[in-house]
Amino acid sequence: MLRRQQMRMLEILLEVDKICKKHNISYWLSSGTLIGAMRHNGFIPWDDDLDIEMMRSDYLRLMQILPSELPDWLALQNDETDPNYFYFYAKVRDKRSRMLEQNGYDRLWKEQGIYIDIFPMEQHPIWLHKLTEKSVGHMYKIWRTSTDDAKAIKSVRRIFNFNNRYFFPFLRKLFTSEVITSGMGIPFHNPRYAEEIFPLTTHEFEGHQLPVPKDADVHLRHIFGNYMQLPDLEKLAPHVGALEFFEEGEALLQDDGTR
Predict the structure, then answer these.
(1) Which residues contact 29 (CB under 8 A, 6 or more apart)?
(2) What is the pLDDT of residues 126-145, one digit of tens each?
(3) Of 59, 94, 66, nearest in space to 81 by CA
(4) How many angstroms separate the CA atoms of 214 and 198, rounded?
(5) What is the C-alpha to C-alpha distance for residues 29 and 58, in angstroms, rounded to an integer?
(6) Could you tell me how far CA 6 lies from the centroid of its own chain?
(7) Pairing of β 90-94 and β 97-101
(8) What is the spatial distance between Cα 226 and Cα 228, in angstroms, rounded to a whole number?
(9) H helices present in the chain, as ranges
(10) Tell me: the pLDDT tens digits for 164-213?
(11) Rounded distance between C-alpha atoms, residue 135 and residue 91, angstroms
(12) CA proximity to 168, closest of 208, 122, 200
């Protein structure tokens, strides 16, 4: 079932890759997906997500382009396309499946299919990024501890809108840096460096040549240390709680590995 999910994620990525090439939008494989490319020439065998990154200017262009360019079996998920979605990065979702994650954050989202993550990257100080993380931390706590989802989503949306429309744009006008890190409000703040990323090159991923940072080895070692060393597989935390594939009207269900 995991391999089937990985191949569905690859299908999504190849569609996004095609659109990015058409519109001259640069992106690169990132995080565990990049580790998989460098260590396995494909997915890490036990990995159940797929991540790509791009600079914020490209990200904003892509958000405008994807709704009209994606095939009908895919959907863009961001705060504009899904009223209850509250992440500061986007997903492209497969409509031919349904997947619920262990953390339960997706329980009221419009789109719940298998997905890939698209992360905007910005140039601002790491201390500033940590401040933006704190400004949204209460939002996650509200949703995680909610006993009244209708009330909670209103509170979450207020916090999201304040940051997205006012606080983050204000900070962008005041601060910049040569360090590249995740977009404001995204709970990851590992520094990246332009000289390690650009110009992009390609590397094999599941039989396809896809974009990766120029010096992917140094890039990954800055973020993860010795990424070539395999982790303790008994300590892995899967994202997926339940997964359905819809094929010709039939649903195949995986729920905590029971079927």
Answers:
(1) 37, 51, 52, 203, 205, 210, 211, 212
(2) 999 999 999 999 999 999 99
(3) 66
(4) 6
(5) 15
(6) 15
(7) unpaired
(8) 5
(9) 2-22, 31-40, 56-69, 126-144, 149-162, 168-174, 194-197, 216-224
(10) 999 999 999 999 999 999 999 999 999 999 999 999 999 999 999 999 99
(11) 22
(12) 122
| Residue among 53, 188, 70 nearest 120 (CA) | 53
- Tell me the backbone φ, ψ of residue 211, rounded to 5 degrees: -70, 135
C-alpha separations of 133 from 125, 140, 187, 209 in Å: 13, 10, 6, 34
Amino acid identity at 14: L
25-84: pLDDT as tens digits? 999 999 999 999 999 999 999 999 999 999 999 999 999 999 999 999 999 999 999 999
Q: From CA 182, how far away is CA 191, in angstroms rounded?
A: 8
Phi, psi of 70 (to 5 degrees): -70, 145
Strand partners, 92: 76, 116
State the chain's mean pLDDT as an integer.
93
Tens-digit pLDDT profile for residues 226-259: 999 988 877 777 778 789 998 654 444 554 443 3
Q: Give the span between the Cα atoms of 48 and 36, in whole angstroms.
A: 11
